[in-house]
Amino acid sequence: MIKQSSKKRISFYTFGCRLNQAETAVIKNSFQAGNYQVVDFAEPADVVVVNTCTVTENGDADTRKLVSKINRLNPRARIALIGCQAQIQKEKLAKLANVYWIVGNAKKFDLAEILQELDSVSTPQVIAPAIPREAFTIPVAGIDTDHTRANIKIQDGCDFFCSFCEIPYARGRARSREFQNILEEARLLAAAGHREIVLTGINLGTYANAEKNILQVIEELEKIEQLDRIRISSIEPTTIPRELIQRMAGPSKLCRYLHIPLQSGEDQILKRMARKYTVKEFTDFMEYAKQTVPEICIGTDVIVGFPGETDEHFAATCELLRILPLDYFHVFSYSKRSLAQSRSLTGTVPQKIIERRSQILRELSQRKRRVFYETQLGTTQNVLFENQKNSYWFGLTDHYIRVKVRSPENLTNQLRTTRFERIDGQTVLGTLNG
Length: 434
Ligand code: SF4
Description:
By secondary structure, the protein is α/β, with parallel strands linked by helices. The chain folds into three domains: 8-127, Rossmann fold (3-Layer(aba) Sandwich), CATH 3.40.50.2300; 149-376, tm_1862 like domain (pyruvate-formate lyase- activating enzyme, Alpha-Beta Horseshoe), CATH 3.80.30.20; 380-432, CATH 2.40.50. Helices cover 31% and strands 23% of the residues. Strands 2-1-3-4-5-6 form a six-stranded parallel β-sheet. The chain has a five-stranded mixed beta barrel with strand order 15-16-17-19-18. Helix 12 (311-323) links the parallel strand 13 and strand 14. Helix 12 (311-323) packs parallel to helix 13 (351-376). The protein is globular, with a radius of gyration of 22 Å. The termini are far apart. The chain binds iron/sulfur cluster. Iron/sulfur cluster (SF4) binds next to helix 6. Iron/sulfur cluster (SF4) binds at residues 158, 160-162, 165, 167-168, 202-203, 236.
């Protein structure tokens, strides 16, 4: 006879950025002990937790659609909405069917405690107080058994107030994680088998705690023996110390990879966006990075259709993206956010034009990625393999090339030197070297 577990079943879904993923992993692990059993999102559950995103209108709509889907497929489940959208759109979210908890960014790590009261809750509970500015700690490690890489949050919030962005309202002002607390989690992640960790935050380059900056965090993480790679996720252009690039050039665990949001390639638009650099400053930095680390992979974000973006401004952005040593871009359509300063700017760009411009940039990005891949053919690189699909093993280089090989061995979580033979769609086909 099968014994029924008396534990409540809980599942998770994450929208948005890498930081949200890092946070979901931590919150999920905080439920591993206690009255809950964590199940896959596709399985029936008593509670479904959705970590929300509010960076664009689409992000908002996605939450509403997912709530409807959960109600359709899993009608007995109670829903907890947490994170950015929960922080700034609490009233709206509280009206959605079966949503019982709206938990903002300051309280989401207390979710396991909040959900102790599961059965006594009959009306939506809104728990979204103001976000404190102090340095923070995270008590649980975000061990992620499904991936070789683990995200580790070291910073949150932002003081830059770019005119298109609501993040300073949704995530609060810039603050850093206590230095020792980062090291504690990194050691646990490494001991659990993660060979690569990805440093995440909203404005990573502003990290400051215990007189340590991001460079010193990396220096200390490099000393953890079982860790092979340290990767930096998206980082603001004006906050990257040149020593960081020099470190990538030397023998280091720091990946030869940067993702630096450009947003526009035209100075007037950058000014309207309240970005903190000019095209020339951005260009100088790119060139320095590429000269110092010739094999570096650099990606960027671009916003298309910001208010006032003319055909000429867009052409300037295209040309800059074409000539800069950028290897791919993420293209975002401008989306008016109710708390962002750009909401009152004139010069709305019609949707059709935004779509056409986005398409042009996406195609350019694909071409540039291919050119980058071509420069690497014939070379031998270290690949960290993750999983097997359709008889190929898939992994990533430190400079962000997706690689596949055929092998009778189990390559999960193995770092292997691989020779690059040819491009196959979005990946490079390789052969193992020994
Ligand atoms: S740097 Fe600008 S875009 Fe990035 S989170 Fe801060 S305000 Fe938003």
